[in-house]
Amino acid sequence: MTMTTSFLIAILILSVSTVQGADYDFPPAPSPGSTVQGGHYNDFPPGPSPSAQPNPKDFQNMKQFLAYLVIQRFKRTITYDPLNITGTWVGTSICDNDDINTYRGFFCDTPPNTTDLTVASIDFNGFHLGAPTLDGFINGFPDLALFHANSNNFGGTVPNLLGLQYLYELDFSNNKLSGLFPTNVVPLSGLAFLDLRFNFFQGPVPPPIFLIGYEALFLNNNFFNSSIPANLGSSPVEYLTFANNRFTGPIPVSICNTSSTLLEVLFLNNKLSGCLPYEIGYLRDITVFDAGLNKLTGHIPLSFGCLSNVQELNLAQNYLYGEVPEVVCQLARTGNLVNLSLSDNFFTALGANCWDLIHNNVLDVRWNCIPGLPHQRPLKECAWFLSLPKLCPLVPYMPCEANPGRQNTTCYNDWASHFDHNPPMPPLPPHASFNQLRKGKAN
Ligand SMILES: *[C@@H]1O[C@H](CO)[C@@H](O)[C@H](O)[C@H]1NC(C)=O
Ligand SMILES: *[C@@H]1O[C@H](CO)[C@@H](O)[C@H](O)[C@H]1NC(C)=O
Ligand SMILES: *[C@@H]1O[C@H](CO)[C@@H](O)[C@H](O)[C@H]1NC(C)=O
Ligand SMILES: *[C@@H]1O[C@H](CO)[C@@H](O)[C@H](O)[C@H]1NC(C)=O
Ligand SMILES: *[C@@H]1O[C@H](CO)[C@@H](O)[C@H](O)[C@H]1NC(C)=O
Ligand SMILES: *[C@@H]1O[C@H](CO)[C@@H](O)[C@H](O)[C@H]1NC(C)=O
Q1: What pLDDT digit, counting tens, does each position of 283-297 carry?
Q2: Ligand 2: distance of its center to the CA of 113 in Å?
Q3: Which residues, in sequence order, are CB contacts of 442 under 8 Å at separation 6+?
Q4: I need a surface site. Which of 166, 189, 348, 395 has the fewest CB within 10 A?
Q5: Which Gene3D superfamilies does the protein's record reference (predicted)?
Q6: 225 Cβ inside 6 Å of ligand 3
């Protein structure tokens, strides 16, 4: 085995063991105590005094000496350390990976083309460390392959990481990072996993993010406010989350081109608009599709009946209308569908086999306009919505129809040319006004 391969394999093992715990799920909310604002300044003894400063001879190699300097400098900026992690960042044995009480969070390996053992991954998950910035720290480890910092209190912006040629997993989730999307990670072509969840990033998301070989791209719970770049379909990831931001505009029709890779996508709670694209029906492997709480409109395209692997399909709290297609409800019998959430829309009818799903608690169609069902919208709301122009056509095309069970993977663009996917929106009132109406009715 070459050194390069063993390096990458060792990193992969560490990576798998740390990512599994997260299960591609939301990280826990920050605990109330873990705040920097409390002014919990570190009382722990600082590193060796300048006079006791070790020199390169005390270390296994020069790389470790340089890593030592970076770690000690970072240690002096730590503002919060409830688990006394930095108490273990002492001495010259940086790479004693067997001793968990030595340099906790740092793991060493031998990078390609050298025999020097050095810091190859940093895993601070759950350490609750606070520091005003990571600049000068992460980018101080030229051989770094992994940086995991879930649930800490790191602030500032993401430093320029372009010099880190081996970096392939970057997890900043649940911190206090801010600024624009860190474009300094975009050209890191080796990066497989980027997790920015639960931070304070804002502004637009640049199109090149979808050109990179990420396994997972987690952007949820930030303040991104652009449209979702039209080249979404170029993304090779399996897990994609846009949830809980301020994204606007339509779901890009190019999503069809992710059909052989995408397993879960969360658009939940943004300001997405336009017709629900029938191209979503190409996502033959998708298990979770969640576009609830947006401003999407139109019919549910019949192509959704091709989502044979989907378990959770959430389209609740949008402006969808028409009939809930029979072919979609059928997925509960012929496919894997267990949760079809369509509440708070403007559907007016249900496909014949949809009624049973209500009784089985698979289908939620409360707060729609379906005659004969309890818990529907007031007539006034339904009449108002019915009077608006409907600009999205019902697309009957089903990519799996000719070949049932085997999804057609070639994105077929003929339908796309037939209509405008993002017609101008009718003047829809915000959801709040519906609640107002409901309250008025209840009183
Ligand atoms: C932190 O850990 C170091 C090293 O184990 C120890 O010497 C020190 O007393 C600890 N500090 C606190 C406040 O527990
Ligand atoms: C390692 O050395 C080989 C052969 O000299 C070279 O082709 C390769 O680019 C080097 N890799 C790195 C990461 O420096
Ligand atoms: C998006 O957010 C940025 C930064 O907060 C702001 O300057 C910009 O005006 C916002 N753009 C839109 C379209 O809301
Ligand atoms: C999907 O990818 C193909 C080949 O890369 C491209 O020609 C096509 O335009 C893409 N479709 C969409 C809807 O973007
Ligand atoms: C179904 O999904 C909706 C939306 O994601 C969720 O709120 C609801 O709790 C789920 N229902 C069940 C029974 O899991
Ligand atoms: C996929 O759909 C296209 C367009 O309808 C069709 O020409 C092609 O034969 C289909 N392929 C399969 C394998 O069904």
Answers
A1: 989 999 999 999 999
A2: 6
A3: none
A4: 189
A5: Ribonuclease Inhibitor
A6: yes
Q: Which ligand 1 atom minimizes the distance to the CA of 84? A: 1
The best mutation among 228, 411, 415, 418 to test binding of ligand 4, ranked by most ligand atoms within 8 Å of the C-beta, falls on 411
CA 400 – ligand 6 centroid, Å: 9
Is 74 in contact with 57 (CB distance < 8 Å)?
no
* Ligand 5 contacts CB of residue 133 (under 6 A): no
Show the 3-state SS of the chain: CCHHHHHHHHHHHHHHHHHHHHCCCCCCCCCCCCCCCCCCCCCCCCCCCHHHCCCHHHCCCHHHHHHHHHHHHHHCCCCECCCCCHHHCCCCCCCCCCCCCCCCCEEEECCCCCCCCEEEEEECCCCCCEECCCCCCHHHCCCCCEEECCCCEECCCCCCCCCCCCCCEEECCCCCCEEECCHHHCCCCCCCEEECCCCEEEECCCHHHHHCCCCEEECCCCEECCECCHHHHHCCCCEEECCCCCCEECCCHHHHHHCCCCCEEECCCCEEEEECCHHHHHCCCCCEEECCCCEEEECCCHHHHHCCCCCEEECCCCEEEEEECHHHHCHHHHCCCCEEECCCCEEEEECHHHHHHHHCCCEECCCCCCCCCCCCCCHHHHHHHHCCCCCCCCCCCCCCCCCCCCCCCCCCCCHHHHCCCCCCCCCCCCHHHHHHHHHHHHC
97 Cβ partners below 8 Å, 6+ apart? 107, 108
Torsions phi, psi for 327 (to 5 deg): -65, -25
Q: Check the CA dihedral 387-299-288-305 and report its sign.
A: positive
For ligand 6, atom 1, the nearest C-alpha belongs to 408
Q: What was the pLDDT predicted at 120? A: 96
pLDDT value at 12 more than 60: no
Q: Decide: 414 in ligand 6 pocket, CB within 6 A.
A: no
Residue nearest to atom 8 of ligand 1 (CA): 87
Q: Is residue 343 a contact partner of residue 322, using CB atoms and an 8 Å limit?
A: no
Ramachandran bin of 31, using left for φ above 0, alpha for ψ from -120 to 50, beta for the remaining angles = beta
Q: Provide, rounded to the nearest whole percent, the portion of the chain with pLDDT above 90.
A: 66
Predicted confidence (pLDDT) per residue in 241-252, tens digit: 999 999 999 999
Q: What is the pLDDT of residues 136-189, one digit of tens each?
A: 999 999 999 999 999 999 999 999 998 899 998 999 999 999 999 998 887 677
